[in-house]
Specification:
Blueprint lengths: L8 E2 L4 E5 L4 E6 L1 H7 L2 E5 L6 E2 L4 E7 L3 E5 L4 E6 L1 H5 L2 H5 L7 E5 L11 H9 L1
Antiparallel strand pairs: 1-2, 2-3, 3-9, 4-6, 5-8, 6-7, 8-9
């Protein structure tokens, strides 16, 4: 497995999370997830302004093998989406940790405490 960025938090459903300024949370999928899915062919992102609750299904990634739901790591409002990945989903395959999908303005950052650090996530995917 590749080295996981230690500045990120990880969800059991294989989303990565980076805390940005002003309680904004940037979300993508992990390298492990994109490898398991295979070549991505479609990504459905949440709508701008959509209010999400933590663990709510909010997006879908589809590959040549299967489709997988993505879940919100925190409660809040979608404030940005990465239009580039909607047009070129393979960007995620090329650089999963460098390609974000959407950003949420979090209501409360305490939800991040429920996520894993890189070491915990590595243990989970090794099992």
């Amino acid at each position: 497995m590749t080295n996981l960025p230690t500045d990120l938090k990880y969800a059991p459903s294989h989303e990565w999370v980076r805390l940005e300024k002003d309680q904004t949370v940037r979300v993508g999928i992990t390298d492990f997830a994109q490898q398991e899915l295979g070549d991505l062919v479609f990504i459905e992102l949440p709508e701008l302004g959509r209010r999400l609750t933590q663990n709510e299904q909010c997006a879908v990634v589809e590959s040549v093998k299967t489709a997988s739901d993505l879940f919100s790591p925190v409660s809040g409002v979608v404030v940005a989406i990465n239009e580039s990945v909607a047009d070129e989903p393979e960007l995620v395959n090329n650089d999963a940790f460098g390609t974000w999908l959407f950003c949420i303005k979090a209501d409360d950052l305490s939800g991040l405490d429920k996520l894993m650090d890189a070491e915990e996530y590595q243990r989970m995917i090794d099992e």
